[in-house]
């Protein structure tokens, strides 16, 4: 546990220190956010605020995660969440770079983003499937049993990875929203992994390594919140939201807890579902809408709820559901 706490603290301090260096550089490079014309009118004041700030937490998390990872842990188990975060974060970086260079809200097209995401996810799924400590089984939360998917494990994991990454991206719509809920998610996963390390001596090092990486993400994202809470000085951009989604799904992958993500990452899930429902209903009814705007947090915003109140509501919801998830590992 002490190792995890040191990791959280180190990542937090590094992110705090990196902010005053990276934010002015992003301003000098004119890497400002271009606001979507179809978005809420209240967001117009955010035009030009530096984006691509996800590097403020991604880099410290990588450094702290490597430094504090137990040396005796299986290197592939250590590497998988890193690869998930860095791989998807790189796709987000390219998307952000196109946006800031072309001064528009659209970077890569949906297909240009989805194709590399799917290819990366399949590759990671095959890697995990072939690893003896992961294989083809997922833990069924609260029931203490495993579900052997056989070869179907690969497409299921690919779906989870792509879905989590894009759901995280949809949730990143208000100051501090994804960072706040993400920090709670990572803290919960770190604690769950620590509990699993204590309960499974044969895989103690591997679970501890995953707890350390989760802790690194926790500390780094909390440090980033210093600059991202309302009113934000910097946005994480797609490089940040993709990295958060990739890291969270990667942690769930190596612990075989992907089925726990709908509970822990519920606010990400509801963002995707509200967007899918809105589009489907719009097409079905030829122009009618269920929500004032999707994802759901924009519906609350257009209904008159202050941005800070929406963020607090999402944080509390995430905290409550993560506590429920923890019950499955404390019996």
Automatic annotation (TrEMBL):
Q: Which InterPro entries match?
A: Glycosyl_transferase_4 (IPR000715), PNAcMuramoyl-5peptid_Trfase (IPR003524)
Residues that span the membrane, as ranges: 6-26, 47-69, 75-94, 114-130, 150-171, 183-201, 207-227, 234-254, 260-282
Name assigned to this protein: Phospho-N-acetylmuramoyl-pentapeptide-transferase
Organism of provenance: Candidatus Alectryocaccomicrobium excrementavium
Question: Catalytic activity, per the record?
Answer: UDP-N-acetyl-alpha-D-muramoyl-L-alanyl-gamma-D-glutamyl-meso-2,6-diaminopimeloyl-D-alanyl-D-alanine + di-trans,octa-cis-undecaprenyl phosphate = di-trans,octa-cis-undecaprenyl diphospho-N-acetyl-alpha-D-muramoyl-L-alanyl-D-glutamyl-meso-2,6-diaminopimeloyl-D-alanyl-D-alanine + UMP
This protein's major location comes to membrane
Q: Localized where?
A: Cell membrane; Membrane
Group of enzyme by EC? transferase
Q: Name one GO biological process term.
A: regulation of cell shape
Cellular component GO terms, alphabetical: plasma membrane
**Family, similarity comment:** Belongs to the glycosyltransferase 4 family. MraY subfamily.
User: Keyword DNA repair: yes or no?
Assistant: no
Record bears the keyword Plastid: no
Question: What lineage is on file?
Answer: Bacteria, Bacillati, Bacillota, Clostridia, Candidatus Alectryocaccomicrobium
State the EC number(s): 2.7.8.13
């Amino acid at each position: 546990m002490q190792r995890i706490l040191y990791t959280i603290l180190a990542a937090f301090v590094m992110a705090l220190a990196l902010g005053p260096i990276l934010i002015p550089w992003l301003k000098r490079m004119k890497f400002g956010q271009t606001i979507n014309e179809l978005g809420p009118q209240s967001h117009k004041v955010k035009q030009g605020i530096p984006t691509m700030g996800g590097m403020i937490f991604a880099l410290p998390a990588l450094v702290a995660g490597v430094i504090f990872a137990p040396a005796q842990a299986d290197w592939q188990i250590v590497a998988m969440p890193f690869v998930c975060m860095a791989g998807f974060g790189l796709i987000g970086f390219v998307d952000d770079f196109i946006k800031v260079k072309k001064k528009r809200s659209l970077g890569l097209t949906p297909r240009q983003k989805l194709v590399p995401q799917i290819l990366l996810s399949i590759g990671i799924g095959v890697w995990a499937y072939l690893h003896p400590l992961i294989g083809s089984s997922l833990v069924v939360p609260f029931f203490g049993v495993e579900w052997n998917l056989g070869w179907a494990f690969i497409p299921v994991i690919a779906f989870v990875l792509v879905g989590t990454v894009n759901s995280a991206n949809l949730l990143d719509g208000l100051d501090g929203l994804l960072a706040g809920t993400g920090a709670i998610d990572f803290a919960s996963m770190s604690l769950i992994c620590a509990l699993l390390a204590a309960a499974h001596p044969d895989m103690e090092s591997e679970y501890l390594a995953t707890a350390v990486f989760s802790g690194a993400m926790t500390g780094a994202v909390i440090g980033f919140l210093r600059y991202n809470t309302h009113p934000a000085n910097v946005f994480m951009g797609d490089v940040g939201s993709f990295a958060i989604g990739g890291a969270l799904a990667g942690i769930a992958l190596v612990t075989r807890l992907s089925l726990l993500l709908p509970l822990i990452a519920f606010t990400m899930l509801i963002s995707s579902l509200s967007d899918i429902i809105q589009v489907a209903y719009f097409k079905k009814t030829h122009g009618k809408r269920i929500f004032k705007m999707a994802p759901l947090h924009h519906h609350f915003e257009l209904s008159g709820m202050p941005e800070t109140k929406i963020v607090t509501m999402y944080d509390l919801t995430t905290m409550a559901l993560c506590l429920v998830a923890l019950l499955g590992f404390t019996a």
